[in-house]
Design brief:
The chain contains 6 helices and 2 strands; from the N terminus they run αβαβαααα. It is mainly alpha-helical. The protein has a two-stranded parallel sheet with strand order 1-2. Helix 2 links the parallel strand 1 and strand 2. The longest helix has 12 residues.
């Protein structure tokens, strides 16, 4: 990974999505400090995602020195997001986007959720 990063003059990015879904999410409390030590001086960056309600449970004090931000999903842009996903999957426009809070959640619109299921239902 380091050699690849050095060859491209860009950091190598390791992404671990939804650490809160780890069977024993508290293991990250012991894993993360060692990972941070291993990455010191390396052209490798680590990106973790975790639902905000599980950060303390999953990371505890191991998260204290990490930069973080909150992703608000599609909040305020549900209409545009739902139409973009529908267009991508060649579906008709969604009928009740504004009334459904789920459309603010990118995971809801994700392939394995809403759009994927609609495409497969239409093929039956």
């Amino acid at each position: 990974m380091a050699a690849f990063a050095e060859g491209t003059n860009a950091p190598f990015l390791i992404c671990v999505d939804a650490i809160n879904e780890t069977p024993d999410r508290r293991q990250w409390r012991s894993w993360l400090p060692q990972i941070k030590v291993d990455l010191v001086g390396q052209p490798i960056k680590l990106l973790l995602t975790c639902r905000d309600i599980f950060i303390e449970d999953a990371l505890g004090a191991a998260a204290d020195d990490l930069p973080s931000f909150t992703h608000a999903g599609f909040g305020g842009r549900e209409y545009d997001a739902a139409y973009a996903f529908a267009a991508f999957y060649k579906l008709g426009p969604p009928a009740e986007v504004v009334a459904q809070s789920e459309f603010a959640n990118p995971l809801f619109l994700h392939l394995e959720r809403f759009c994927f299921n609609l495409v497969h239902i239409q093929r039956l």
